[in-house]
Amino acid sequence: MPTPPEDHTGARIRRLRVLRHLTQMGLAERAHVSYSLVAKVEQGATPATPAFIGAVARALSVSTADITGQPYVDELRTDQLDGLINPVREALDVYDLGADPDIQPRSLADLDTAAEQLCSTIRETNIKKAATELPSLIYEVTTAAYLTPSDDMWRVLASTYRSAYDIATKLGYADLATTALDRLEWAAVRASDAVLSSLRQYLRGLAYLRAAQYRTGKRLIGVGLASIGQADASLPRDVVTGQLHLGAAILAARDQREDDATGHLSEAERIAERTGPAERVLWVSFGPTNVRIHRVSALTELNQYGEACTAAQSIQLGALPPSRIGHHHADVARAQLWAGKPDAAYASLRRARAAAPQQTRYHPMVRQTMEGLASHYRNVPDNFSNYAAWLGM
Q1: Integer Cα distance of 59 and 142 in angstroms
Q2: Could you tell me the CA-to-CA distances from 173 to 85, 95, 180, 186, 291 in Å, in that order?
Q3: Which of 80, 108, 345, 364 has the fewest beta carbons closer than 10 A?
Q4: In this model, does residue 348 exceed pLDDT 80?
Q5: How far is CA 144 from the centre of its chain?
Q6: Could you give the angle at which helices 364-376 and 384-391 cross, rounded to 10 degrees?
């Protein structure tokens, strides 16, 4: 199943390189990668790793989304998701307008339940349903926060902003995700909640990871760890502290700082031993299993693909939400591809789709792995072309 020449990662890199009047050698020197790797990626003969995409994006002064092709507009239109983005954007823009006189909000308890259910819907990867319901809930909670302000009500509003971030990120709208995080901080300050502010720094760190700005991401995680020290002792504080260490571990691994990655993983593991499974606390899926999942991710980022595959074999996913399960299978598929196990990688991609179809369809790492598999297979497995067509490749 050959990838269409105008629509794969390497082709985008080639077009951007030409626009910058660079040769393949010139790009390789700027990005501090090998010339042969640039050539193979542009030809579609070798998949682009996230680290490679990040290095090339910095060298070309473009966003990583320019290289991955996000957002995938044609597929979003097919799934009727593209029309759900602007209502979310508009709802985020009324944060400072006060109470809407045409809205009679429900009680705090009812709004909290609705916000929690929305978080659950996103973790089940029913993105279309969540994106449809979110704008009206933001309007309602915004009005309630102005009419009956309290720390708890501001926390509920912060939760709706967090859901906006999650949806925007999963669908590839980085600008909207940034706006949502700014709103999250605005609400967290009004709730006087250092845990929520630190969670926002964790999410910002992930955004900078995706943008390949590892130094800034590391600084954000450091700010989050310092901020959360101001919070009272609680399970949410421990959960976010642990998750900050997991974020720091992946940033360090992507930046090839193995000792730092190992140290953060060890600290997260220590915290997880105390918290136990806490997947629904602030919906970050923290716990011992998530630490093991991040260890697999870190090994993959460190190019230790065989070790990553071995570590993945012992993980029991248990009751983790579908979004976390799907992401893990996609991550494992990447490690298996680079470890020379294409059949296992394709099987993992199928598991990712089964666990979290809407998330998997819009995940750039899945598409990059499929590009790599296309170059590996001489005889395409059954349904491989169907899978690629489902992705829009």
Answers
A1: 42
A2: 9, 20, 11, 20, 27
A3: 80
A4: yes
A5: 30
A6: 150
Residue type, 129: K
Contact, 181 vs 95, CB < 8 A?
no
Q: How far is CA 121 from CA 77, 139, 158, 163, 324, in A?
A: 21, 19, 17, 10, 13
Q: Which two tokens stand for residue 368?
A: 């990059």
The rounded distance, in Å, linking the Cα atoms of 333 and 336 is: 5
Kindly report the backbone phi and psi dihedral angles of residue 278, in degrees, each rounded to the nearest multiple of 5, phi listed first.
-140, 45
pLDDT in tens, 108-148: 999 999 999 999 999 999 999 999 999 999 999 999 999 99
What span, in angstroms and rounded, lies between the C-alpha atoms of 56 and 27?
A: 7
Residue with tokens 């790793």: 49
User: Partners of 152 in the beta sheet?
Assistant: none
Buried b (16+ CB within 10 A) or exposed e, 135-144: bebbbbbbbb
> Two tokens at 132?
């449809």
Contacts for 119 with CB less than 8 Å, ≥ 6 apart: 159, 162, 163, 166, 283
Structure tokens at 202: 């964790």
* C-alpha separations of 41 from 47, 286, 333 in Å: 6, 35, 18
Q: How far is CA 246 from the centre of its chain?
A: 13
pLDDT per position as a tens digit, 289-320: 999 999 999 999 999 999 999 999 999 998 89
Nearest Cα neighbor of 191 from 155, 240, 146 is: 155
User: Do the beta carbons of residue 64 and residue 365 sit within 8 Å?
Assistant: no
pLDDT at 378: 65
Q: Spell out the domain ranges in the chain.
A: 1-69
Q: For the structural domain made of 1-69, what CATH number should be given?
A: 1.10.260.40
